[in-house]
From TrEMBL:
Keyword field: Membrane, Transmembrane, Transmembrane helix
Residues of the full protein shown: 28 to 396 of 493
Localization per record: Membrane
Bias type Polar residues, positions: 356-369
Membrane topology recorded in Swiss-Prot or TrEMBL: Multi-pass membrane protein
The keyword Repeat belongs to this UniProt entry's keyword annotation: no
Residues that span the membrane, as ranges: 214-232, 244-264, 284-303, 310-330
Name recorded for this polypeptide: UDP-galactose transporter
Amino acid sequence: HEIPPTICGMPLKYVSLVTLAVQNAALSIVMHHSRVSTPPSQAYSPALAVLLNELLKGTISFLIALSRVPQVAERPWGRMSFGNIIRELPYPWTAPFWYLCEEILGPDCWKLSIPAILYVVQNSLQFVAVSNLPVASFQVTYQMKILTTAGFSVSLLGMKLSSTKWLSLCLLAIGVGIVQIQTSSIGSAPKNLAVGSAHDSAPIHFHVMSPLKGFGAVTAACFTSGLAGVYFEMVLKNSRADLWVRNVQLSLFSLIPALIPVLYSTPHISSSFLHDIFRNFGMWAWATVGIQVLGGLVTAVVISTSSNIIKGFATSLSIILSFLASVILFHFRITPSFIIGATAVLVATWMYNQPSTPSKEPSFPNSGR
Ligand code: C5P
């Protein structure tokens, strides 16, 4: 029996779940604020934020993986004959670096290309969604991820769902629907009065929100989240590679799709290229990127120590946190229909996470489960 990993004496599994809940609440609030609080002419580039997220996450994952090399170094060298080169190196202390490079560029690294592209698309859609919906509506609607994750777990992993779980999924859809109906009334607000929340007396923001666009983006993001999450879990639990090596591979494959929109949005590569792409990239933009990086790292830990399904439960907790924060920060008034919809989502999340018979959980041949 392996001893479960701990952090400051507490089980990593629970620390990561709580951190993810807090991170989720903080991300939608900070990201929403960073997008709606400035006029469009002063908006920062979301494509750059997605790229920086991948760069930072990849670098941190690489450093963590590097620090773990001595623990995994019993494995034989030489898959790409790096091992032979390393033995001849004049600087032996660089050996862990080369060893890690060999791991990262291993023959099955291509498997991460699929979730990598999906996550870049998802991270970009998230910016569209959060810029066009009030924070709490975004949070609740994004819970449809549970539905898509279940759908992909059934179709890709051959998982079977109990009737309670199907019932909870229907309740989830109804709850999300109720919230959606009440939020679409924002669309009837005067067009010249851009709004930042569902309530008439809310502070006026510069950004005109389009709930239809927001819901479209959040729905698409739910699909990429479900598919990418289940795929990542499958790759992780069907192989013995280190989580942090997998994360570096994920970030590496994300760099190309993340870089294309940044280059596309800057027609001339001149000496002021960096200055141009970083224009308006202020404190709130950096805060958004920082919280996203944390989220990516913690999500990876949660998928590896728990599962995508348990992750859904943790993020549903974050709805409560962001409700409270939205009331304080954005003068968001919680309407009765919002309470009914959100309650349905929370009850559904709770029902979905009730333990069922072990045989109904997805099985991963090499995971020991
Ligand atoms: O909403 P969801 O839980 O699907 O979001 C996952 C987020 O975590 C995405 O932003 C994705 O880029 C990130 N992630 C990551 N590394 C992983 C898994 C997810 O950075 N291994």
